[in-house]
Amino acid sequence: MSAAAQPNAHTLPGADAFRLRAGNFNLLVLRLLDGRPEVVLPALGDQFRRAPGFLRFAPIAISLDDLQVSPGEVDFAGLIAGLRGLEIMPIGVVGGTPAMRQAATAAGLSTLRPAGGTPAPAPEEAPAPAAEPAPPAVAPDFRGSGSNAMLVTQPVRSGSRIYAEGADLIIIGTVNPGAEVIADGNIHIYGALRGRAVAGANENPDARIFALNFDPELIAIAGFYAVREGLSGAPIGRAVQARLDGEALHFEKL
Known about the structure:
By secondary structure, the chain is an alpha/beta fold. The protein has three helices and 15 strands. The protein folds into two domains: 28-111, 2-Layer Sandwich (Alpha-Beta Plaits); 149-253, Pectate Lyase C-like (3 Solenoid), CATH 2.160.20.70. Strands 5-7-9-11-14-15 form a six-stranded mixed beta sheet, with no helix packed on it. Strands 6-8-10-12-13 form a five-stranded mixed beta sheet, with no helix packed on it. The relative contact order is 0.09.
């Protein structure tokens, strides 16, 4: 073999076939209040069938913080199989005790951590002594968008998804059925909202949604959502602002 044909001894085979990098993605979080699949899955399926397509094949994290049971009382294998049967993809767990995370890991779920946060200790290891806490990060104030805004000057078509990361979203036109608009801040729609709108996607409870013609398929703020069938008390077809009060969505005429 000639020298030109020989592989570089300092290059790993396949090294140019991929790149690894950190990512920051929005995930829906399923807060488990009961560890029994036969209780959780029927109610979950009923809710998601009211918003067809919204969670189909969506990755989801399972929060264990609200469970007041022993790890052996949570059927993780049954829960994973049931969620996949609903075409929801569970990828990992957050929170909970080390023993509960260990049970989830044994069932094939990863332990997730918030972006930029400190990784949870491995299930088999004792937590390290707490370090001196760092100063808390200051969350951006989205009540006044300033320059932190994405402007969309045309209608949002069915099947489209627009995400304003770290910003408000301003849409001059209609959000059509089957379209989805997402913002970490507020959403302003100077037209009809007929698709899905998700504000405060980074868990900002002060975010609001404004629409000149309010008729959505689904609406959510900071993870709390309602589908069309649950909006019987909202002023449909009117100019509306939606806001979060505690864990309840409120809809007010403009």
